[in-house]
Amino acid sequence: MAKKIIFSEKAPAPIGPYSQAVLINGTLYVSGQIALELATSGDIKAEAKGVMENLGYILEAAGMDYSHIVKSSIFLKDMNDFAQVNEVYGSFFTSEPPARETVQVARLPKDVNVEISVVAVKE
User: Fold this and answer.
1) Residue 94: which pLDDT band, with cuts at 50, 70 and 90?
2) CA 73 to chain centroid
3) Which is a Gene Ontology cellular component entry for this protein (predicted)?
4) Which of 77, 88, 104, 116 is buried most deeply by CB count within 10 Å?
């Protein structure tokens, strides 16, 4: 059972002692992604899109895409942003969206407004 560290230069580098993603037995565990450069824009949709794009870069580095995601976790600074983030998130899944939870948290890394982590499987 060998694990493989997945890294994409297109996505933000880790800001701590963790990997962007770890692949083991066909399952990819992607660390929470943020869009730091968009966090202060005041545009939650743009920030959410940036987060989803960062996830896509990591999926691509592992030879996967959004269709391989089976579980996601969305962390919001403000649950009032739910509808807008949900709209952006949903646009990345044309059919059979993954299982998911969305929670409001007190604070996120680098004071961003949204962070998303996923688990993807390639059979």
Assistant:
1) confident
2) 8
3) cytosol
4) 116
